[in-house]
Amino acid sequence: MVGMTGPRTIDLTGEAAADARALRDAFGCFTTGVTVVTTLDGTRPVGFTANSFASVSLDPPLALICVGNEASCLPALTASGVFVVNVLHVDQQALAAQFARRGADRFAGVSAETWHTGAPVLPGCMANFECRTEQSIEAGDHRILIGRILKVHHDADHEPLVYLRGGYRRVHTD
Ligand SMILES: Cc1cc2nc3c(=O)[nH]c(=O)nc-3n(C[C@H](O)[C@H](O)[C@H](O)COP(=O)(O)O)c2cc1C
After folding, report:
1. Is 61 domain-assigned?
2. 61 preceded by cis ω (within 30°)?
3. CATH classification of the domain holding 72
4. Which tens digits make up the pLDDT trace of 45-77?
């Protein structure tokens, strides 16, 4: 928990192998929301939990996600050229866990709507962004997908699900 390992400085420019743990811990100090990114594999809905979502541009409306090169959804994301970012609220932690589980039917018990693209939109979320991929950029062990936002829904009358230091958290918003 907070401060357990104490402060550390790691120089990643040297000969020493990158300290993945330290880098992960440092990234983990940046608080994010939690989303489920969905798309279509042919006609089959697929998706995964992601916290790499970021807003990019208002005009034109753009957002990005980063997808691991080994992620099972990457071929479907590339082939379909569309995705939906479903922003979770605090009561949807179980959904975050379900969509990060390997080998499970991630859509078991999950209802979905479709908008313009046919990609699944999860109802009852804090926000949904339906996107068409505009740029796909190789970036180390991930790929950055920049999407043009076609349609959004938001319901700010919720508290967000938050991810910090490797764990789900809640914040109280006044
Ligand atoms: C909170 C959280 C955030 C995650 N964020 C991302 C992400 O931004 N990009 C990504 O590729 N995987 C992310 N993952 C991992 C995926 O959800 C998924 O577990 C991983 O891609 C392995 O799934 P696969 O079996 O579909 O390959 C995240 C997992 C969790 C629990």
Report:
1. yes
2. no
3. 2.30.110.10
4. 999 999 999 999 999 999 999 999 999 999 999
156: alpha, beta or left? (left if phi > 0; alpha if psi -120 to 50):
alpha
Residue 47 CA to ligand 1 centre (angstroms): 9
Q: How many angstroms separate the CA atoms of 46 and 21, rounded? A: 29
User: Rounded to an integer, what distance in angstroms lies between the CA atom of residue 71 and that of residue 17?
Assistant: 24
Ligand 1 mean position, distance from CA 174 (Å): 30
Best residue for ligand 1 mutational test, from 34, 41, 46, 49 (most atoms within 8 Å of Cβ):
49
Name the residue range of residue 105's domain.
32-164
The helix or strand, by DSSP H or E, that contains position 97, with its residue range, turns out to be helix 93-98
* DSSP label of 76: H
